Amino acid sequence: MTEQQPGQHMAAEIAQQPAIFSGLIERRAEIAKVAEVVQQRKPRFVLFAARGSSDHAALYAKYLTEVLLQLPAGLVSPSTTTLYGGKPDLRDVLLVSVSQSGGSPDLLEVTQAARTQGALTVAVTNTSDSPLNAAAELSVDVGAGVEHAVAATKTYSATLLALYLLFDSIRGGNGEHAANLGDLAQSTLDTSTDAVTEAVRRYRFVDRVLTTGRGFSLPTALEAALKLAETSYLGARAYSGADLLHGPVAAVDGETAVLAVTSTGKGGDALHEVLDVVHGRGADVLAVGSAADKVSAALRIPVPETAEEVAPILEILPIQNLAHGLALARGGDPDSPRGLKKVTRTR
């Protein structure tokens, strides 16, 4: 029997993403049927319920909602339902519950309560027969397949794409900006290998990392910090580029590594000044994204240019490989980080 090598599951699941994207895009018509129901119900507000990596995907969908649909959106605090018994009036509200497993008790309770209170509920999960799917009125299957590594990779990116296809369909789009993401994902993985290897060498012994982004790229910065913390046990913190200048920049110095997610578009443009400031304070900046070559940085990992609204689906790919490489270089196993389980049950 072949001995399992550290990180082999995470590496394999990162590599599966281009094919998963292509398969999900082929199922766009299924997601469009869910979107049709949402269109008919004409929600005036959208709420998202999620935890962990799925919470970052939900934040991405919040941007999609406010920018593409021009509807107000928010992230729920599950404890207002599960601990405090809150029952707000949710008529004319769309609640989207995002969960890889669909098994978290708090998200299940929130979804059940929201449906009782009049919300149209949609579950976006990677487990089509989950309790969360059964509780929601509608569901979207992420279709990423079983994920063995504790750190979410393919389920995270596939959830982003599923959410994009859903909200693009709600606005009446045809998915054109996502059409070639399978090929672009493969190109991203192939062309970033050398830069990721150099970044692993450069940051192997770093203790403190700040991640930052603006707009659609902010969820990528948040997910990057989580991946680095859970796989390499780094002290990683994520900040919006705007918030970084409001105080945390005081802690930035020559001992600080800054991972900046910057893609072509308004969010990337807004990050230029921020990176000029942190670079000027001596921070070692790693820029990731399609606009990486346009900002002040010591090292860059370019990503193919896309419409800004789908950039996060590609941005995260080399960051996942960076987290994987750093974990191995630091003597860890990213498949099984200490103290973590694949499904975390909270209430």
UniProtKB/TrEMBL annotation:
Keyword Repeat (UniProt): yes
Disordered: region residues: 328-347
Transmembrane segments: none
The UniProt record lists the keyword Repeat: yes
Highest taxon listed in the record's lineage: Bacteria
BP GO annotations: carbohydrate derivative metabolic process
Gene Ontology terms for molecular function: carbohydrate derivative binding
Residue ranges constituting the SIS domain according to the UniProt record: 34-176, 196-337
Signal peptide annotation: none
This protein's UniProt keywords: Repeat
Name of the protein in its database record: SIS domain-containing protein
Lineage, broadest ranks: Bacteria, Bacillati, Actinomycetota, Actinomycetes, Pseudonocardiales
